[in-house]
Description:
This protein has helices spanning 2-16, 68-71, 112-121, 231-253, and strands spanning 24-27, 30-33, 38-39, 41-43, 56-59, 76-77, 87-90, 110-111, 128-134, 142-151, 156-161, 168-170, 182-188, 197-205, 213-218.
Amino acid sequence: MKQLLFAGTLLAASTLLTPAKADIVTLGQQSWDTSGATILSLGGVPSGNQVQNVPCIICGANQPNQTNFATGFGYTDFGNTGNVGDVAYFSSGVLRDTVLGQDTISGTNYTGGQLANLLQALGSGQLSFSIGIDVNDTNVAQTLESFFFIDLTSHTILAAYSPGPGGTLIPSLNNGTGFPDYTLNGLTLANLDLGHEYTFFARISGANDGLDRFFIVPQVNAVPGPIAGAGLPGVAAGAIALIGLVRARRRRSA
């Protein structure tokens, strides 16, 4: 119980802090300007089991029954089993890319159209999504140093989680392969050029148990309620009903 409370305190603190970010970072032996990037927020446990859920983009090992095989969606399998302390990998458009080296941009990447088609197939008509993180540790918290969503064609970092020196501790909240622990929120394909090439980058230090995974969590469109979907007339009707309820309560009190 104490461990869970400690982990929850760490998570609450991380969501209250706005990650600072250096203007220039070096990724894949290239310099990138992060000053215009959307700042991603670190959130809590996403629903579902990643094995049955959604495609990996950067994974510590091949996941049986991975939906990537059904969609032909590529991902990096860096194969860590706990013997590599620090990992820094780009995603890959190659289906289960086991040869991509650390801090190396793949020669095959996602197109905007491919990402959009995947999100729509998963139910995200608005093309908004999060990144789920499946952490596996030895009861010693690992550190999320950074995560970036990058437009390779325009050489632009679109979204970033980069809290600066020291990173963010991410103790496992839901230990076990395929069970996610965190989400990085605030990603979208809206207004992006679907003809461009895109990639993701993740860096973890203190990786001590291997098999960490980053995967796509689509923002599935919510079914609108009677007021939210009714426009101004619906709002007015709701307001009238609320006024009537308040008056009725006043009469009962009198």
